[in-house]
Amino acid sequence: MATEIRDPERKRGVQRTVLWLLLIAATFYFGFIAMAVMRAQ
Amino acid sequence: MAHAHTHDAAHDHHDDHGPAKGIGRWLFATNHKDIGTMYMLFSLLMFFIGGAMALVIRAELFQPGMQLVDPMFFNQMTTMHALIMIFGAVMPAFVGLANWMIPLQVGAPDMALPRMNNFSFWILPFAFTMLLGTLFVPGGGPAGGWTMYPPLSQQLGDGFPMLIFAVHLMGASSIMGAINVIVTIMNMRAPGMSLLKMPIFVWTWLITAYLLIAVMPVLAGAVTMLLTDHYFGTTFFEAAGGGDPVMFQHIFWFFGHPEVYIMILPAFGIVSEIIPTFSRKPLFGYDAMVYATASIAFLSFIVWAHHMFTVGMPLAGQMFFMLATMLIAVPTGVKVFNWTATMFKGSISFEPPMLFAISFLFLFTIGGFSGLMLAIVPADFQYHDTYFVVAHFHYVLVPGAVFSLMAAAYYWLPKWTGHMYNMKLAKAHFWLSTIFVNVLFFPQHFLGLAGMPRRIPDYSTQFADWNMISSIGAFGFGLSQLLFAYIVFACIRGGEKATDKVWDSGRPHGLEWTLSSPPPYHSFETAPEVK
């Protein structure tokens, strides 16, 4: 069974960090594709 | 660095939720130790598959002329060897170590996102089955080099979409693993463990994880565009449609150079843990080590075009990328100095982890120096695409990254299994590996300087002698690694009982040594106090 994080403050911290990191990853992925699209035009 | 004081009550009553029985324990694993073990066993398997491909390459190059394989298959071997060793062996091994050690070192019960942890591991076997499957479809496996430069990579047959999908899966796995590492370190540290009290291995992994978050999506973007060029009529990289193949190289190396540091920064962390233990001294310049690691990571983003000097770029660009690359020698020099200073006047003993760490120190430095030579633009015009480059990056990645992984295995294996391994065999493995790795790669410097190009199955007779020696070294090194596998599996099966501190005569330092060997299934259910 997975270890659950029970402390609500820590849980919010985990969720916030995950969202930020996903945002960074998505920015790099779509950002580089967008740059390539702009260069191709 | 942290001075830890824990109480045993934190981890002595978990019998009610130990590991599940049977295959379900592994398929549905959410425990960081189980997942770490799976990562490392998977990487060991990939190490042997990628190693077998290297031996095919070296067997063909044993003497001039075409002997064993046709040139197309040879090219598939060079490409697949790189992809498997980088994405299948070295990276998963470090993620496995992160899984095992980060919760233990920061005083957490597990990784912060255990279900995602399971997912990020289990997509890897599918990715690599698909990648290896390309060898059996019409057109064969990828043969244009691991860099997948278009238009060459676009000429691959039915294996093309399999390659692209496999790379996407590897990237997704790495990003999820990196998210887990960062979230765990930022949110699950024991009370009192401020950032500058974290073990250095945790620090190097935190910085590595940020590199992964930034650059794996760039690789994914690059191969997505290769895919749309191939199937959806775009011309990002096709000159005929107004695209630019050189743009792919810029995008690829924006990922590719930080990737090198993804494979070496955790190695720095491992060596920084081992050298103080067996020198019986604290790490010299802990803060400087952290800042040096961060500096190397930052610089890794602004040096990518040194891989492309011969493609052609303005003089200002050449100067910038040459000088920025040379700048990396400064924080790297700080690290080498600090490791040496840690050993200076220390009471050093030479257990297998320390032997591998010292070998790392000398041989990685050789790889660093040849990197500096390659950073010099006019020299690079001579060395580019020769065996000198092959020698350079293999010195960084084999006695660098791979030796650090072996050092880590020998350092923490008794903690993981609860058993000591056979020291005599481990020392024999060290000496065989160190001797043969030099027999294998050192002559490649001479071959490169004499002008032998890389990625060719045949060569001029003037290169015959050093190639023969290099191939003998390759088979010696490859066979020596069977000994490593035997030592690891024998240790898992049993052996002399390891104490909690394992290296009692040394100076092991950190929270992991306060737990039993092997540690309880859930590491720290009550957070330890760090002072």
Keywords:
heterodimer; A: 41 residues; mainly alpha; rod-shaped; B: 531 residues; Cytochrome C Oxidase, Chain A; two-stranded antiparallel ribbon; 16 helices; 2 strands; 65% helix; disordered N terminus; iron (chain B)
Task: Describe this protein's structure.
- The complex is a heterodimer of chains A (41) and B (531).
- By secondary structure, chain A is mostly helical.
- Chain A contains one helix and no strands.
- Chain A has one helix at 8-40.
- The longest helix of chain A has 33 residues, at 8-40.
- Chain B has one domain (34-514): Cytochrome C Oxidase, Chain A, CATH 1.20.210.10.
- Chain B has 16 helices and two strands.
- Chain B has a two-stranded antiparallel ribbon.
- In chain B, helix 2 packs antiparallel against helix 16 and helix 8 (265-279) runs parallel beside helix 11 (329-343).
- Mean pLDDT of chain B is 94; it is low at 1-15.
- The interface between A and B is medium-sized, with 22 and 37 residues.
Say what the CATH topology of chain B is: Cytochrome C Oxidase, Chain A
Largest sheet of chain B: 2 strands, antiparallel
Strand content of chain A: under 5%
Discrete helix count of chain B: 16
Averaging pLDDT over every residue of chain B, what do you get? Answer: 94
CATH superfamily of chain B: Cytochrome c oxidase-like, subunit I domain
The structure class of chain B reads mainly alpha
What percent strand of chain B?
under 5%
**How helical, in percent, are the residues of chain B?**
55-70%
Question: Compute the gyration radius of chain B: what is it?
Answer: 23 Å
| Major sheet attributes of chain A | none
Instruction: Determine and state the CATH class of chain B.
Output: Mainly Alpha
Mean pLDDT of chain A: 89
User: Helicity level of chain A, as a percent range?
Assistant: over 70%
Can you list the strand order of the major beta sheet of chain B? 1-2
Query: How many strand segments of chain B?
Result: 2
Unreliable runs of chain A: none
Helix and strand composition category of chain A: mainly alpha
EC number (chain B): 7.1.1.9
Membrane topology (chain B): Multi-pass membrane protein
Pfam family, one (chain B): COX1
Subcellular location (chain B): Cell membrane; Membrane
